[in-house]
Amino acid sequence: MKKLLALAVLALTAAAAMGEGTDKKEELRYNPDPNPAFCIARGFTNLASGWLEIPRCIIYDNTETPFLGWFTGLGSGIGLTVARVLDGVYDIVSFGSSGASLHSDKFPDLVFEAIWVPKTE
């Protein structure tokens, strides 16, 4: 029963966090003054999905520099995973009262909002 409840809470927080996105690609996605409920949902979502930074960085770096991107992407992915997980813990521990911590245009609120493949010219 506890596992089912934890799964339901995780699904609800992920749904709430993903609902904050915008449809416009060029619009600023970073919200400098989010509400506490969003911060707590973002914290749980970042705890659960922070590991996705590793494949995201490998894909991104490998697109820019084939073969070498596997190694640079792995390194930057591990670093961003640690940053995203620690930021999720910070959001949860502060009960969302701290607002944004590490988040900016280059480090979006969720890994799902980050750029996975660089723009080609």
Overview of the structural elements:
The chain has 121 residues and is mainly α. The chain is built from 4 helices and no strands. Helix 2 packs antiparallel against helix 4. The longest helix has 26 residues. The radius of gyration is 15 Å and the shape is elongated. About 6% of the residues have low confidence.
Furnish the topology, listing elements before pairings.
Blueprint lengths: L1 H17 L17 H14 L3 H12 L3 H26 L28
In short:
The protein has 121 residues and is mainly α.
SSE string, helix = H, strand = E?
HHHH
| Helix content estimate | 55-70%
* Main sheet attributes: strand count, strand direction, barrel closure: none
Task: State which percent range the strand residues make up.
Answer: under 5%
The counted number of beta strands is: 0
Mean pLDDT: 76
Helical segment tally? 4
Helix/strand class: mainly alpha
Task: Describe the structure using short key phrases.
121 residues, mainly alpha, 4 helices
